[in-house]
Design brief:
Blueprint (H helix, E strand, L loop, with lengths): L20 H17 L15 H17 L3 H8 L3 H14 L1 H16 L9 E10 L7 E3 L4 E10 L5 E8 L4 H4 L1 H9 L4 E5 L6 H9 L2 E5 L3 E2 L2 E2 L7 H9 L7 E2 L4 H21 L3 H5 L1
Parallel strand pairs: 1-5, 1-9, 5-6
Antiparallel strand pairs: 1-3, 2-3, 3-4, 7-8
Helix pairs in contact: 1-2, 1-5, 1-10, 2-3, 2-4, 3-4, 5-10
Length: about 290
Amino acid sequence: MGTAVHPASTTPASWDAFSDVDAFVDEVMTELAAMAADSRRPTRSGPKLALTGVTLRKAIMAIWCVGYCGMQWRAIGQLSGIPFGTLYTLFARWTRLGLWRRLLDRLRRTWRVACGDTAEPSTVVIDSRTCRSAPSCFARGVDGGKKIRGVKLHIAVEKYGFPLAIDSSPANVHDTKGMVPVLRQLAGRGFQGPAIGDLGYRGERLAKAGAALGIAIQPIARGRNGVFIPTEIAWVVERSLSWLSRYRRLNVIVERTKTHLIAFVEIAFVSILSRRLRRLTAQDCSA
């Protein structure tokens, strides 16, 4: 049972997101500079000067605090000294320009190479997580099995647990239907290979949708008599979903758009990856 996953060695440290928040800020600043070089206009144009230097770093840290601490935009605006409208506008613009997705893909490839793997995976693991949502959320439904009113996150991760594709739907949407947009994202990124999931992904409809995209759906049993079995690499997606539970903004969904919810999921994984890459041992960095 299990899998032969050999992650890169990192310096031993407990899970303390605040200890390495500067790593997240540095990675975002690097990606903003790369987008500016590509003429993606990560900063707004207008009569007011764009945020730079220390103020920009403070704004990035404030956006991270919204996701990790679950703070309201108005509250973090008061604490940071930056108008909450400015913070929200930055977050919305960067989300629209694809900053978080682009940064997550770059860090994921870097981590895989540091672990001695190829930059792109040959197999993915799919699963979903039902989250409670506020009445103001962009969508709501009732998950009959878990008795939760909210939304579902559908995710496809590689063997180290970092996502290649993310989507969301009302909680009453069946997993086989909600996973189709994720498969389309995978195919759009050039992925061709097997997608491992639990027995909830059985069925001819999803199998045909995957086959049309060049993705083979492989449902396997991950439990027996109420006991979880870590079969092959299928368990890594469970760990990924548990990572998300540490980010309070993702425990009760209040986002008014699906793109903003997915952006906070991407921010969570960027935070994890940037912290891991900062803690790589000197031996791995020199290799």
